[in-house]
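User: quick one, fold this
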Amino acid sequence: MIPVIFLRTAVWVLFGILVCAFGAVTPVRDSVAVPTKVAVLDFVDLNDNQIKTEPSEWLRRSVAATGKFKVLPRDTMAKRLTEFNVNLNQPCNNPQCSFDIGSYLQADFVLYGSYSPLPQADVVTLKLLYIPKAQIAWTWVGEVQMAAAGGDKGLVWERQFAAIANSILDGSLVLEKPKVHKTLAVVDLSDLSFLSRVFFERIQTRISGFPQYDPLSQSELSELFTALEINKYSVAPSLENMVGLGQKLGVSNLIYSRIYRDGKSYLCRLAMYDIERKAAVLELPPQPSEDFGKLLEYERIFFFTLAAKEKNRAAAPAIAQQKGKSYKALWVSLGLLGVGGGLGLVWVDKLKKGGGGGTGPTQFPDPNPPPGDPTK
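Assistant:
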């Protein structure tokens, strides 16, 4: 009788002969479970800082309908959280409370954000937090025009949320920050009005979608201003002043934002500064409009341009080898935004000249300064 050990040896020898004869054999691995357990928190209305349960349910149903996520029912979440003395009716729209809730629920992801009804549109921001790494994996910013709702807001938003849920699946989730990332401070000089909070929330959400940046929280930034005895409202937004402020704060990048009223018009200013290089990356001087919705378009095109510049800078060697590469898709996208004031055309002109892909600042035309702008 042949010992078992010899049989095993013979089998492995035969296996080695087959590998040599027919090439490497790929082993069949057990399927790795993809994290899909999602807790969808109730939207927070920035107008009164209260939760919005109805649109939150629309979102839960839409995410569950994809069949790719296991969405925790709200009553299950509420029951589980009471064991940890957490009230689900308390508004949560920041990474810390979202992380705590996700940990208590043993969820893989927590989807949270804001829902702000405006006269012309409902504005929504969303962030998907990956709990194991405490990392924002995906973000979305958008709105639905009420004229398109046709009297049935719920139906329109359910369709929109269905598209959002699918975009989570289609997009690349960032489950871990890159090894090299840059600190960033968002210095906002707006007032505390509802519209200013809506605008700033969009900026914060956009920045959270850039994995290469590590933004300071507003509480951290406030503590720094206090410790350094800096009155941020006294700092005029010049390149020299912003670089100096960034150096004092110890960050590598800084975004300046401001939204304010001048007569009947709203105005917004946005600028991105590279503190290490002492340079402006992208600037949007005051853009006046009596329609607040236009300011949302200006904000959108600013971050669209910033994302394009970052992408081009990261892919600089590849672009250098493809000098004839067309940017038509970007130009068309900008045209579809319907941005007034020729912003899209100016951006395209800069891009043709290399402004969009280089390291120098892209600057939009500055209209006559409004009488109420103290920085002029």
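User: anything notable?
Assistant: The first strand starts at residue 37 and ends at 40.
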